[in-house]
Specification:
By secondary structure, the chain is mainly beta. It is built from 3 helices and 41 strands.
Length: 703
């Protein structure tokens, strides 16, 4: 299907009636009159259909039925959300997109109530999706309850509580020499303390024979009574070993046809290795005023990042045509939160508290250059054999302090009003240094500091229009203001300046509810978000990567989804979304040229997204799942001259469950689509492709 600018306008006109007719979306409700409960929006348990916000619940049982092990698969049936795997952080990572904004740091990742990645960026490479009870997805800005905020969405991964693991294991083998396994079991109680342990590991191969991913996770959870309250302890370990692939360079209005598909131009010793250690201690204390909950988390990551990138010129004349980086990075994050949940009057719940998010990051980068044939026939030398052209280092210290109050007021049985306010106090210090590897006098050092004190607020209301038993219809709307210090991409370049904080204001309105004794859950919403100071990656006149604040952006559109359980063993889910994500004002530096981006669609932001899935999972016998995703036309560049046509991917599984064991054949991207799905930090013309088809055979074992 060719891409023509007029087609998007024509489709918009034709599709609005269809969208209105398909105003079906929703939290993943259970069959036979039960409904999901969420805790992300207010930290207070509440029925999803009553919350005046767009929330989707993904049950852990569904992830296991589909044999999902990554974020891309987990979010495949959430309206308007993409999370293609890969990107600059390697094959263990992903670059999620919400509301048409394709930025790795624009969303908030939370694991069991703690921001995962701390004061810096979402730590997707070390995310553990084993032993998951459910995943909650909240669209729009993060609630005022979290010290690290987001603009377009929150993903909270909730593992089974201590002593409630599913006591099961799976082992499997797959294409390209891949293997995987995971186990979750309950340990014998230690006095009054319940305990559980989950372990998982995998090795993945790819069409690019050099690319690989090997990782492992362990999570120990304990909980029990201590004095008048309950003590919680989590200990988590993650080890990631990857060999990254190479992005493909865009030339003009399309990806180049010179470099072979899946050619790898990284140095011989290329790898992205990470060790992460986390400890979480929490104490819940009942008081005469309400429940007082405190949580403290400390985590440390050590990262080795060795990669190389082809230069956009794509020369093959024996001169240096690629740049290398050899980085060492250490990141320490501390998160502490304490809040009191009160019920001062009937129908009024209040959470009041304070939190601290403190992060320290240190990185050193040895950068060089090398020559590699564009045919990819030879592996380049290791970085240890290359001349060091420059040495860059950065030390960044971030402190995010906040005081917040969140209220949930139900003055009438049919009216729900939620409001929150937060005072953000952020403070950041950065020390950077650059040493030229050729001329010693070119030694630069800089110290930068930025402090900001700024309030943010949220307000939402829901009106129950109709109710009959377990079925209801709720009209809702909300407005939110969001603020966040600029992200750090930890690239190889000398970036001494702390960019301006990003800001956004959003509004959304929707209709949601349940039918047929809650067997059918549905939702449709419209949204608009105005963004200021979005951090974007461009290139300067010399072709070197450059980070800068974009002027302004506007995201708007409509998202719909539904979940239907015609019988208890069958679930059918569908989504349809239209996004219009554009720059409102921004003079962009793209490929060394200035581009007036006003009115242009954001890169890698498709107008249309759709998904349909069916899951047949009886207690025993044949099991089957299928999920198809449609991604519409989009552009690779800010100037909107490099189109990418639409495509469809298919994931499916077929298996048989015996009384105690199960065997399943599953596959991802069975249509073997290979479009560009993520941009590289090396500039505005390098893109990572969607990984090709993979197939696994898994055996389920009870413990």
């Amino acid at each position: 299907m060719s891409f023509r600018p007029w087609r998007a306008a024509r489709l918009r006109k034709q599709a609005w009636p269809l969208v209105a007719a398909l105003a079906l979306a929703a939290p993943h409700a259970s069959a036979q009159g039960t409904e999901d409960i969420e805790v992300t929006a207010t930290r207070l348990p509440e029925a999803v259909s009553e919350v005046p916000a767009d929330i989707t619940i993904i049950p852990g049982a569904e992830l296991r039925a589909r044999h999902v092990t990554d974020l891309a698969g987990a979010l495949a049936l959430v309206a308007g959300v993409q999370a293609p795997p890969g990107g600059d952080a390697g094959p263990a990572s992903a670059v999620p997109a919400f509301w048409g904004l394709h930025e790795f740091d624009a969303f908030l990742l939370v694991v069991d109530g703690v921001p995962w990645g701390g004061a810096f960026n979402p730590a997707i490479p070390t995310l553990d999706l084993a032993n998951v009870e459910r995943i909650e997805v909240l669209k729009g800005a993060a609630p005022v309850l979290y010290g690290a905020t987001s603009f377009v969405g929150v993903v909270q991964v909730i593992h089974y509580p201590a002593g409630q693991a599913p006591d099961a294991a799976t082992i499997g083998t797959g294409s390209h020499g891949s293997w995987r396994g995971q186990a979750a079991l309950n340990l014998p109680p230690l006095g009054d303390f319940a305990e559980s342990l989950s372990l998982d590991g995998e090795h993945l191969g790819f069409d690019d024979r050099r690319e690989s991913l090997t990782d492992g996770h362990a999570l120990y959870r304990a909980s029990g009574e201590l004095g008048p309250g309950t003590l919680r302890l989590d200990l988590a370990l993650a080890f990631v070993r990857t060999v990254p692939n190479s992005p493909v360079v865009r030339v003009g209005d399309a990806l180049n046809s010179i470099t072979p598909l899946d050619a790898n131009y990284n140095p011989a010793n290329a790898r992205i290795d990470q060790n992460e250690y986390q400890g979480v201690l929490g104490y819940d204390l009942p008081t005469r005023f309400g429940a007082w909950q405190s949580t403290a988390s400390l985590d440390y990551s050590g990262i080795t990042d060795i990669r190389g990138f082809l230069r956009p010129a794509l020369t093959d004349n024996g001169s240096q045509n690629a740049d290398s980086q050899q980085q060492q990075r250490q990141i320490l994050n501390l998160y502490a939160d304490t809040h009191l949940a009160l019920t001062p009057a009937a129908g009024l719940d209040v959470a009041i508290g304070a939190d601290l998010l403190y992060g320290v990051a240190r990185q050193g980068s040895l950068n060089g250059a090398y020559d590699v044939p564009l045919s990819g026939a030879f592996i380049p030398p290791p970085t240890t054999a290359l001349h060091v052209d420059e040495i860059n280092s950065v030390y960044d210290d971030r402190r995010f302090l906040g005081q917040y109050i969140q209220t949930d007021w139900k003055p009438l049985a049919w009216l729900d009003i939620e409001a929150g306010a937060r005072l953000n106090e952020t403070d950041e210090d950065r020390t950077s240094r650059h040493v030229d590897g050729f001329t010693a006098p070119a030694d630069l050092a800089a110290i930068d500091h930025r402090s900001t004190v700024r309030p943010t607020e949220t307000f939402g209301a829901g009106v129950r229009l109709w109710e009959n038993g377990a079925d209801r219809a709720v009209l809702y709307g909300d407005v939110r203001e969001a603020f966040k210090p600029a992200a750090i991409d930890f690239g190889p370049d000398y970036t001494p300046a702390i960019l301006q904080p990003e800001r956004a204001f959003s509004a959304e309105a929707g209709l949601k509810g349940t039918l047929d004794d809650a067997r059918l859950a549905w939702q449709a919403e419209i949204f608009r978000l105005d963004f200021t100071n979005l951090v974007v990656q461009t290139t300067n006149a010399q072709g070197n990567p450059l980070q800068q604040n974009a002027g302004g952006e506007r995201l708007q559109g409509i998202e719909t989804e539904f979940t239907w359980h015609p019988v208890s063993a069958l679930a059918v889910r569908g989504t349809l979304s239209y996004h219009d994500a554009r720059f409102t004002h921004y003079i962009a530096a793209e490929s060394g040229l200035n581009v007036n981006a006003a009115g242009k669609q954001l890169p890698l932001s498709p107008y249309w997204l759709a998904a349909i899935g069916a899951l047949y999972t009886p207690g025993h016998g044949w099991q089957a799942t299928a999920v198809a995703n449609y991604v519409g036309d989009q552009y690779l560049d800010i100037a909107n001259t490099a189109p990418v046509r639409s495509y469809v991917t298919l994931d499916a599984s077929l298996g048989y469950r015996f009384d105690r064991y199960s065997v399943t054949l599953s596959g991802t991207n069975l249509t073997d689509q290979r479009p560009p799905v993520a941009a590289s930090e090396f500039g505005d013309s390098s893109f990572y492709l969607l990984p090709g088809r993979t197939v696994f055979l898994d055996l389920g074992i009870p413990l």
